[in-house]
Amino acid sequence: MKLRNRNIEKLSTETFDALVIGGGINGAATAAALAGKGANVALIDRGDFAGSTSMHSSNLVWGGIKYMESKDFALVRKLCKSRNHLIKSYPSTVQEIRFLTTISKGFRHSPHYLWAGTWLYWLMGNGFTKLPTLLSPKKIKQQEPIIDVEGAVGGFEYSDAYLHDNDARFVFNFVRHALNYGAIAANYVESQGAEREGDLWVTKARDVMDGHTFDIRAKVLINAAGPWVDQHNELTGQKTTHHHLYSKGIHLIVPQLTDSQRVLAFFADDGRLFFVIPMGNRTCIGTTDTHMEQPEVDVTADDIAFVLENINKRLTLAKPLTQDDIISTRCGVRPLAIKADQGEDRDFLQLSRKHVVDTNTESAHVSIFGGKLTDCLNVGDEIADEVSRLGVTLSAPSFKWYGEPPKSVKRQFMDQAKQMDLDAMTAPTSSEPLSSRLWRRYADQAIPMLEKIRQDPAQGDILIEGTEYIRCEIEHARDHEMITQLEDFLRRRAKVSLVVPHEQLRQSAGLKEACRVLFGDDADERFKQYFEQNRDTALPPSSAVEV
Question: Which of 6, 98, 314, 395 is deepest in the core (most CB within 10 A)?
């Protein structure tokens, strides 16, 4: 909290080159790019960083193979290159993974036709990933025994990428980059609208935690509010050439269905893509694709029934999945950018997740529509170019603002970890060696953790039962990650509430101790508040689900 409080004080006393509204993937990447290139940047979010769309993704970093069918080849080419760039820039976090797709009899395309499409997809990605392969139903069953191949006519396997950890964690690391480059960022700070006064935007901001208001001054205002871009533009009186449509997607987190590290892909009964995605010792299944009028959404009984029905049809499980198997849910909207003059009668299922930068040069205002995790580095660079065009001088325009530290730094960390035999301290229940995990999550910030563990081996103990989080990670989160509410840690800096059953968390002595580390004297209050607000994270508030 100290870091957040210091930053809020600075928000009201400095004049910034740019103020970014919204700390999802678009806003976080924008702040990191601008700060890295030398601009004086502020970033605020009315909730926590990555608190909306950016924490409800499939955790996939993909080149948009589904846009091949609509022949949007330019977008596919761009996204494939972006995916490759992320894999090279974040090798510990963004990793290639195989997608095994099963085609049922009567589907609109044959497996051979789709397999040929995967070759074109591979070529459009510069042959960066493993080659695609054609599969017979027998071969599919050999590779993944849980797939029901009765009625299948074949399938194929190809490569894309996924986030080894968590989408919200990936977003926060861009916020961390921005802070390291000198940006001022604060969560739970709401913009109540802004006006242009002379050469500056003056934004009326409110600290959501205590209600006090203050002004933030900046030369350029960047609206990266995700699904709420249109609403914030209304507050500032901005007219744009684009606006958003909304598509709701949900995922269910269930016990691990297969231990193979691949994504199983199907086409649901309505023809849409449907995934079974590895998540450590859990499995993520979904998604839905439902047109919504507003960005505020919830999981419904119908959503859950749709996912359970489709998964049970496509897998031969010893026991069909039921509502009782759901550990947690993810539910958010995809903001889809369309031109304002196109109307809202378009088939939103054919709309892509491409981003659009909409700039009002006269008022020095930028809006970011659409977007997805795969394209985040392009968003950062494009907004930096726009801000420069609007008159802000970037002192280091060519600076590489993204990526893991140099290999020499990683080697230094791994050498120290080896000398102290860190991996011998890895808990038997962990999914990877402790050294790999700490580097992937914290990079060079993990080096001081080694010294803490040397001085006190208890710092390497798992603190919360059923997770992999060790004591020194909790202390790091307290000091460096702006944990303001318990959910910030459980759901976004970590993915604890996604993979640990709700009631198990409530009874966890380790979680109560983690609260004391994070919140000190306020620990009991924050613990109680979280469980009052999150009575059951897995299920809708009413009715059983029939499947």
Answer: 314
Domain residue spans of the chain: 1-54+167-241+349-390, 63-165+246-339, 407-533
Q: Given this model, what pLDDT does residue 227 score?
A: 96
Nearest to 366 by CA among 458, 513, 240: 240
Domain 63-165+246-339: which CATH number of 3.30.9.10, 2.60.40.10, 3.40.190.10, 3.60.15.10: 3.30.9.10
- In 3D space, the residue among 264, 198, 201, 225 whose CA is nearest the CA of residue 15 turns out to be 201
Instruction: Please tell me the pTM assigned to this model.
Output: 0.94
CA distances from 286 to 163, 249, 307, 327 (A): 16, 8, 6, 14
CA distances from 398 to 34, 72, 383, 385 (A): 11, 30, 14, 11
The pairs formed by 85-89 with CB atoms below 8 angstroms and a separation of 24 or more are: 85/377, 86/61, 86/161, 86/374, 86/376, 86/377, 87/61, 87/128, 87/161, 89/377, 89/402, 89/403, 89/404
The most confident of 24-33, 266-275, 341-350, by mean pLDDT: 24-33
Q: Which alpha helices (H) appear in 276-338, and where do they start and end?
A: 301-314
Bridge partners of residue 221, in order along the sequence: 19, 365
**What CA–CA distance (Å, rounded) separates 511 from 509?**
5
